[in-house]
Amino acid sequence: MRQMPSLNMLRVFEEVARNRSFSQSALGLNVTQGAVKWLTQSIDSTCINSPDPG
User: So what's the pLDDT on residue 1?
Assistant: First the structure.
């Protein structure tokens, strides 16, 4: 079964998509820019690069 991203990861992804900026997203989420980048990369490895179980 494929691992699903956490709700926090999805919140960060939505904020980055809306703002199109790691810096603005970090301000909106009250976290550092590094945290936003790290969570975005985690989403990428969790959802996009995970092998299809079929």
Answer: 58
